[in-house]
Model the fold of this input.
Amino acid sequence: MDCIKAKNYWASAWEEKAHATEHAKKRIELAKKPEQTPIKVDATNMCACFSGNHGKYTAFLDDCTCEDFRRNRLPCKHIYRLAIELGAMEEAAESNRSAIPFPRSEQASLSDTIDLVEALPEGSQKRLLEIAGNTKPDLRFQLKYHGIDELLRSGLVIETKPDSRQIIWPKKGEITKLLDQEGIAYDPKAKKDELQRICWEHLSEKAKELFESWIVVDVSPNFNRRKIHYYLHRKFGFSLFFNPETASTEKTPLLKTNLPDDEVTDELIRRGYYTRK
Done:
């Protein structure tokens, strides 16, 4: 990426004082958030595509299709994020593709979403509940042991940081077996660490497919994570209460309580899990 070209263009497009106003400081802070991760950056043409709840936008260093720029004719959060991505601004920004909001009109309907959820076995649904309700960054799971491979196939969950996947390497014999099968040369006396390096260098995709690994996942932005969480929480969750007769805390399934009157509860009713009191 030609940072010098971007810096020169940035300096010619905007005076330095334009970035010192409260208007600009607010947008610079917004630009650094993971929600402003660009869908695509074109370094050659110095532009990027962004997505938000109300639409998709194309930004250049001196122009953007969003309403904020059209109204104020000053750098918006998209322009500032592009400047950061191109190296025209020396700011650190968080990147997370799973945090990118998609226009609500492009998200799957709740009914279609729950059709996919209900096609999963119960164990996978409960794992999805954990993922959808997570508020911590970089939530890691074991791909096969935790059943994440099935969630990935459903499309409801995506791997957000494939470059940070950590393979749980098996015994030395399993690694040499794969190298032999694929015709990759190695020193029979090599230590396991060296065999792992050779395997990763030549057969990383095969190793990901065959061996267990830790991966970072999140709900796909094509689906409404909050409503997925509400649906599964009401389906599998419990309400705790104190029973004075037994002097103990007991729990009642949420499906046996009064649930909110909304479209999530309507889906539970439609699928036979709940009846209004």
Remarks:
- The chain has a mean pLDDT of 91.
- Strands lie at 40-42, 47-52, 55-60, 63-64, 140-142, 157-159, 166-167, 213-219, 238-243, 248-253.
- The chain has eleven helices and ten strands.
